C-alpha cells in the first residue's frame, strides 16, 4: 500500500500545481466590468452639486456653551 501511495503522489501533486496555475491565470485575466460596475455610477461618495463648503473661520469660532480654553475634559 505504501508503494501505491508513493507512486501516485507525484503525478497528483503535478496535476494540482497545473490546475492551480490555470486557475491563477483565469483569476488574473482582465474581463469586462460587471453590469453593476460600469462607468455610469448612480451613487457617489462626494456629491458634485457644487454647494459651497463652510468657511474655515466658521469651524474655528467658539460655540455657545463650550469652554474656550483648556483641554475640553471636565475636571
Précis, in short:
It is built from two helices and no strands.
Radius of gyration over C-alpha positions, nearest whole angstrom? 31 Å
Residue stretches low in confidence (pLDDT < 50, at least 5 long) are none
Please give the count of helices: 2
Helix content: 40-55%
**Structure summary, number of beta strands:** 0
Question: How much of the residues is beta strand, in percent?
Answer: under 5%
Largest sheet: none
Roughly what is the average pLDDT, rounded to an integer?
75
Shape: elongated
Helix-strand topology string: HH
Write a structural description.
The chain is mostly helical. The chain has helices at 2-28, 56-60.
What features would you highlight for this structure?
75 residues; mainly alpha; elongated
Topology:
Blueprint: H1 2-28, H2 56-60
Amino acid at each position: 500500500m505504501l508503494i501505491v501511495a508513493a507512486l501516485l503522489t507525484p503525478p497528483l501533486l503535478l496535476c494540482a500545481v497545473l490546475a492551480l496555475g490555470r486557475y491563477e491565470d483565469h483569476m488574473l485575466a482582465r474581463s469586462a466590468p460587471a453590469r453593476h460596475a460600469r462607468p455610469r455610477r448612480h451613487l457617489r461618495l462626494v456629491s458634485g452639486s457644487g454647494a459651497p463648503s463652510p468657511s474655515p473661520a466658521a469651524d474655528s469660532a467658539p460655540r455657545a456653551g463650550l469652554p474656550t480654553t483648556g483641554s475640553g475634559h471636565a475636571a
